[in-house]
Write a structure and sequence with these properties.
The complex is a heterodimer of chains A (about 130) and B (about 220). Chain A is mostly helical. Chain A contains five helices and four strands, in the order αββαββααα. Classes of the chains: A mainly alpha (about 130), B mainly alpha (about 220). At the A-B interface, helix 4 and helix 5 of A face helix 1, helix 7 and helix 11 of B.
């Protein structure tokens, strides 16, 4: 009987821990609020971190689909029905032979700023995007 | 805001660079042609050796007598010019814009170095300004244009520092920075700032004249 209690309370603890873990992981997955490419981690950043409301962006008219940003290319053309969800931009934009960090930064800037400028909405100046904590 | 940014980043930037380089070529061509007409012996007496010798003495700190006579001014002037040219040419924020637009990039300064160098430019300008006011002979020789030129140089550096620090109002500072930088670039060929590219001509002329003709030093 004692044994049974022990097991069930242990199970309860595990179940609770699992629930908390699940809640935290979905939290982490579905509310991205900054862009923090792993290519820039591990050494001191030059600029403050960029805040980016992933969910809010999905609601903007200018954002058509996931692959507006998480794009996939073939023979120099962007593919309509494929995406690169789950991959960081650096996975491709740093990997090309001869590419440097400059290429990656440039890719981020061109994707983000070009849309803001076209839409006349959202940040376009260095200090507007790089406004978070260092 | 977006329109001003797009204008400053696009057409005005192109305009500034075209006027800058076009202006330099125009002014150099004009003066070389005029010299050929009015003072063609200059060409006959051109001496590469004496020209180089003169240039070397004036480009090395304390290489000339007048520089040694004014050690403070010389030190400030050299620090000023190195920072003045070095910061815009090697600032990360400038190079990344070239990368984005033309896919070219080169070596950049660290943010800290760029900020220290910008402060050196600004403090030097304060020094030049005070010197113009306080020193009687310099004051006598100063025209309104000289003060305006100083302001023209201060503006992009002051607003650039402000923008980089992200201080309140940095949005306006950034736009003013772009516009004032473009104005400065475009005016360089048509103001006293043209000494930037006339310097070698002056030295070639004086060096050849003093060295080859008068057998004297010009430093």
């Amino acid at each position: 009987m004692k044994q049974y209690h022990k097991v069930s309370s242990l199970l309860a603890v595990f179940a609770f821990a699992g629930l908390v873990f699940f809640a935290m992981s979905t939290e982490a997955q579905f509310s991205i609020t900054t862009v923090e490419d792993s290519a820039f981690s591990g050494k001191e950043r030059m600029r403050p971190i960029v805040s980016f409301d992933h969910d809010a962006h999905m609601a903007y008219d200018a954002v058509e689909d996931c692959n507006t940003c998480h794009h996939m290319w073939e023979d120099g053309k962007k593919m309509d029905n494929a995406d690169s969800i789950g991959m960081e931009c650096s996975a491709c934009h740093l990997a090309e032979p001869g590419n440097s960090e400059m290429n990656l930064i440039s890719a981020y800037h061109r994707l983000c700023r070009t849309c803001h400028l076209n839409e006349k909405a959202g940040p376009v100046l260095c200090g507007e995007c790089h406004a978070g904590e260092k | 805001m977006y329109d001003i940014y797009a204008l400053a980043r696009g057409p005005l930037a192109w305009g500034a660079f075209i006027v800058f380089f076009g202006g330099i070529i125009y002014r150099l061509a004009a003066i070389l042609l005029e010299a050929r007409k009015k003072d063609h012996v200059v060409y006959a007496y051109f001496s590469p050796y004496y020209a180089m010798r003169s240039m070397l003495h004036w480009i090395v700190p304390f290489g000339s007598r007048s520089m040694r006579q004014q050690p403070i001014l010389t030190t400030v002037t050299f620090a000023f010019h190195i920072c003045l040219i070095g910061v815009p040419l090697f600032l990360f924020a400038h190079i990344i814009l070239f990368k984005e637009s033309f896919d070219i990039s080169w070596w950049t300064l660290s943010g800290m170095a760029a900020q220290v160098m910008t402060v050196i430019v600004l403090l030097s300008c304060v020094y030049f300004f005070v010197r113009r006011i306080v020193q009687p002979d310099v004051r006598y020789l100063s025209s309104t244009a000289d003060y305006l030129i100083l302001l023209l140089v201060v503006l992009p550096f002051a607003t650039g520092f402000w923008a980089a620090r992200g201080w309140a109002g940095f949005e306006i500072a950034t736009l003013l920075h772009m516009l004032s930088g473009e104005l400065l670039l475009a005016l360089i060929p048509f103001t006293k700032l043209s000494h930037m590219f006339f310097f070698p001509l002056t030295r070639i002329y004086a060096g050849s004249e003093f060295g080859a003709v008068r057998n004297a030093k010009d430093w």
